[in-house]
Write a structure and sequence with these properties.
The complex is a heterodimer of chains A (about 350) and B (about 575). Chain A has about 350 residues and is mainly β. Chain A has 5 helices and 30 strands. Chain B has 3 domains: about 90 residues, 2-Layer Sandwich (Nucleotidyltransferase, domain 5); about 140 residues, Rossmann fold; about 325 residues, no CATH class. The chains are: A mainly beta (about 350), B alpha/beta (about 575).
């Protein structure tokens, strides 16, 4: 049976595609070195539109109104510019209510986009541009440690990794945050209150790597301007030992947290990347595995949720579980030495 | 059945679910179609595969191992038709429920008329209504445009206007749709279904036609103010869903090609089968099918010529689970639990399970949580579906579940046949059937596949249904009565075919069973006490033939609507007792 894979790897090649949601301008070139905060592409994006009904305002037919419209598609208009003027002794005038661009004219109406904002797409990882995708973005390659999580608040930043979680089940509280952590990416345990998230913003920190978060804190976490990546899930879960070991041994290194929101269909996942010096390109991590003895796994459901283990044997047929359900299963040796039978669907390969 | 009607074609049916893909093989055995075997594999709609054909091939590969028959060639292509060496299959049908929920904007004139029809139509497939545009909408057209641009719907369903009726108002409503589509990048433009005033086809083509990904027309869902006819539009929408999925998920086009265009959304295929059953086996009572899976809760009911299909992703047990709390509270879910579980643990469970929808409960505690969530999800789905059941259908009381015979149940949460008592109690709690009804568990989740197969072969579904491929749990007797706990409400005598008899005195608040094995029949005499009504009238007696099942004849004396004790300790003790009575733990 094919197995889902969660990447927690000490050294690997990392290739990421970064694309604008709509067409724009690509600002990088092939083989260019980029840092995570570099803008690789940008586009302009109108938040609002204004529909001016010339025909109705001037009380004339659509065709007549079209003949009176003075602006053209793509024309940029300042606020107050006259768009159409009626006929007669005291003609009524229609003016652009705000600065904007004309996007459509016809049927006696003018549609303008207003409130344009610039959208910048950042590299998200440090590396080299290996492909430029015209009008949309680029593909970036780097090498280093890769730790993927399960939840992210959509922000990206880089900084020095500081470990303040003494153990994998540590709790991040207000008292643990002090000025010395300013500008750092903090490896913490779980977080249970909104005040701690706000205090981290006030320092400010450059990112939080958490084992788990209370579901009630998710709206607050989404508001934070710094990236928050959760490695294991919701509630009071300790960080899985593979992620904790890798992150804690890389403390004091520069890391990038790309807390992208998890999207099961596109494959986007929040991740922490620790760039490492290499002499030769390491292999890319395997995206697909088949359950087999020797594979390192993580338990995704109770009992032993989050625990790391290795497959001893894949059981033939269906196995009975303590819940009474029957499912394909594997014999798993957990890191605490215990051997358990776990349904395959509750396992994910770590590697 | 004359053998000449069966031409001997084998059929492979593939169901691509949100979590698992199943390949099911049907063939003619001793002159009649039978369900032969099934194989399954994880669905591969998600990254890193992003190609549902891979999961389908894996499921077929596993099916091959069970069948001892080759269905795929060396390049993993389907061998069709059957070859002289025994390999291959003659025909293929596919049902699909995998994929993200389809964001939909509905457009119509009046809130209680065409917009209601649009809602009902949209809820017949895997959609979520993200915006509603109607005559009463207070927003300006540019605000409607901005809303559509922000929401980026996959689908727009437009209704409104009786045939030959209003056209100017609809035209006005179409403008923001056309303009918003124009502003969206071509690959992000929505598909549009127009199911309104049939005289407006040309205008709709002018205003929206070139700007939509695809523009479809169906007969008006409201040909007149008093008449609603959703079925033809449902059929068109089902086909549109497959086309939307083709754009979203790789491999859908290949499976549709393999099936010769016989791919259907799973919910629609289930609805088609229920309509068919209601027509073939129709009685005064309705036929009900409930399916609770990862992607959605699907409730389909057929009543003497009328049918209702509800596909409710908001009550699915997968990635939408945290959203369940928009419709219910943690306390309401936990009232179903036999174990003392805190609201915090339940909240964490809902979020954690949404990360890994395909995982299953390995411990008793986890199963108790999963079953409590499933009960409340199905309860809410049933409440939601009941609002759209036709008027004047057979029922014992207007505010209760109508009379159904039989009730078919499938889906991940219900099809586990290792403990049919668990499944039955879940159904009794959430559906709360009344009167006398047979409960059938679709343990192999065949119903949608038979619905899809019916388009290719209309004999197959009938013969498979009658072949015992479904598990009859038994006959359930649920009196409607008001009484205090422990008060006798019903006496019953079951007369077996061999002349033996068994009796039960049912007390309010309890469950009782009488054994009657699968395949056996008996005569059940019921005497209602204290005004109890099982369909003979309040307090009246009667005798009916009943058929057996895994749990025989089950008497549910817990009252309708089911009211659980407010005292948590007593409630949990009762739930344990009810579980134990039905053979659970």
């Amino acid at each position: 049976m094919q197995a889902p894979v969660n990447h927690i790897v000490g050294l690997t090649s990392i290739v990421r595609e970064r694309l604008l949601p709509v067409s724009g301008t690509v600002l990088v070139r092939l083989n260019q070195k980029v840092s995570p905060m570099d803008v690789v592409a940008e586009t302009h994006w109108a938040r609002e539109h204004v529909l001016l009904d010339v025909a109705r305002t001037l009380r004339i037919s659509s065709n007549a109104a079209d003949r009176l419209v003075k602006c053209k598609v793509d024309e940029k208009l300042a606020a107050g510019v006259e768009i159409a003027v009626g006929k007669g002794l005291f003609p009524r005038s229609i003016r652009a209510p705000r600065e904007g661009r004309v996007v459509a004219v016809g049927g006696g109406q003018v549609l303008m986009e207003v409130g344009e904002t610039k959208m910048e797409l950042r590299a998200g990882i440090p590396g080299t541009i290996i492909e430029v995708i015209a009008n949309r973005g680029a593909v970036i390659q780097t090498a280093g440690a890769l730790i993927q999580g399960v939840w992210g608040n959509g922000r990206i930043d880089s900084g020095l990794l500081v470990n303040i979680a003494e153990k994998a089940d540590g709790l991040l509280t207000l008292g643990k945050l002090d000025i010395s952590l300013r500008g750092s990416i903090i490896l913490a345990g779980m977080v249970k209150d909104a005040e701690t998230l706000e205090a981290a913003a006030d320092l400010p920190v450059r990112g939080l790597i958490l084992s788990s978060i209370f579901p009630s804190l998710l709206p607050k976490a989404r508001e934070m301007r710094y990236p928050i990546m959760v490695t294991d899930g919701f509630g009071s879960l300790p960080m899985n030992s593979a992620a904790f070991k890798l992150l804690s041994t890389n403390a004091k290194r520069d890391v990038t947290v790309n807390a992208e929101m998890f999207d099961r269909y596109s494959g986007a996942r929040p991740e922490t990347i620790i760039p490492l010096p290499i002499s030769a390109s390491p292999p890319a991590p395997r995206e697909v595995e088949t359950f087999a003895p020797g594979l390192q796994i993580r338990m995704r459901r109770p009992p032993f949720m989050g625990m790391i283990g290795s497959i001893v044997a894949v059981k033939p047929g269906l196995s009975s579980l303590p819940s009474g359900l029957r499912a394909p299963a594997a014999e798993v040796k957990l890191e605490n030495g215990e051997t358990v039978i776990a349904p395959l669907v509750n396992l994910e390969v770590v590697g | 059945m004359p053998s000449s009607l069966v031409d001997g074609n084998s059929l492979l049916a593939i169901d691509v679910g949100a979590a698992n893909t199943r390949a099911v093989f049907f063939d003619v055995i001793e002159g009649e179609y039978r369900f032969v075997a099934s194989g399954s594999a994880p669905t591969t709609a998600e990254a890193p595969f992003k190609d549902v054909a891979e999961g389908a091939r894996d499921a077929i590969t596993n099916l091959q191992k069970v069948l001892g028959k080759t269905l795929l060639d060396a390049s993993r292509g389907l061998i069709t038709p059957s070859q002289s060496n025994g390999s291959g299959v003659d025909a293929l049908v596919v049902t699909l429920s995998a994929g993200a929920v389809v964001k939909t904007v509905i457009v119509g004139l009046l809130k209680d008329v065409s917009l209601e029809s649009a809602r009902r139509l949209t809820e017949s497939t895997y959609t979520r209504i993200v915006d509603t545009i109607g005559l009463n909408d207070q927003r300006k057209p540019n605000q409607q445009i901005d809303s559509i641009l922000r929401l980026r719907p996959d689908l727009v369903v437009i209704t409104g206007g009786t045939d030959g009726g209003a056209s100017l108002s609809i035209q006005k409503l179409l403008e923001p749709i056309g303009l918003a589509s124009f502003l969206l990048p071509e690959e992000k433009r929505p598909a549009v279904l127009f199911a309104g005033n049939e005289k407006m086809e040309a205008e709709v083509k002018t205003l929206v036609g070139e700007l939509a990904t695809s523009l479809h027309f169906s007969p008006n869902v409201r040909p007149s103010l008093e008449t609603e006819d959703i079925d033809p539009a449902e059929r068109e929408l089902a086909r549109m869903m497959i086309n939307i999925r083709k754009r979203q998920i790789k491999g859908v086009d290949l499976l549709d090609l393999w099936s010769g265009g016989h791919m259907l959304p799973t919910g629609y295929a289930t609805g088609r089968m229920v309509r068919f059953l209601a027509k073939v086996y129709g009685s005064k009572k309705g036929i009900l099918s409930v399916d609770l899976g990862v992607s959605a809760a699907v409730i389909s009911a057929g009543f003497n010529g009328k049918s209702t299909l509800k596909v409710l992703p908001q009550f699915g047990l997968g990635e939408n689970l945290p959203g369940l709390l928009n419709y219910t509270s943690l306390e309401e879910i936990l009232r179903w639990s036999s174990l003392d579980i805190s609201t915090g643990v339940l909240r964490d469970y809902l979020y954690q399970k949404s990360l890994y929808p395909s995982t299953i409960a390995a411990t008793r505690e986890d199963l108790a949580l999963a079953q409590a969530v499933a009960r409340q999800a199905l309860y809410l789905a049933m409440q939601s579906a009941r609002r759209d059941f036709p008027q004047n259908i057979a029922s014992l009381k207007p505010n209760l579940t109508p009379l159904f015979e039989p009730i078919l149940a499938g889906g991940g949460a219900l099809s586990d046949a290792s403990r049919p008592g668990h499944g039955l109690l879940l159904l009794l709690d959430s559906i709360q059937p009344v009167g006398v009804t047979t409960i059938i568990i679709d343990q192999n989740n065949l119903l949608p596949l038979l619905g899809a197969a019916a388009s290719q072969n209309n004999i197959l579904p009938v013969q498979v249904l009658e072949s015992g491929a479904f598990l009859s749990v038994g006959t359930v007797v649920s009196p409607v009565v008001s009484a205090s706990y422990g008060v006798p409400i019903l006496k019953a005598k079951l007369s077996y075919e061999n002349g033996a008899e068994a009796r039960v005195d049912l007390k309010y608040g309890t469950l009782e069973t009488l054994p009657l094995a699968n395949g056996e029949t008996g005569q059940l005499s019921i005497q209602g006490l204290r005004g109890a009504d099982v369909g003979f009238g309040p307090g009246r007696s009667g005798t009916i033939p009943v058929s057996g099942g895994a749990l025989g004849v089950v008497f549910d004396g817990r009252g309708r609507p089911l009211e659980l004790p407010s005292d948590a300790v007593r409630r949990r003790e009762l739930i344990k007792k009810w579980n134990w009575t039905l053979g659970g733990e």
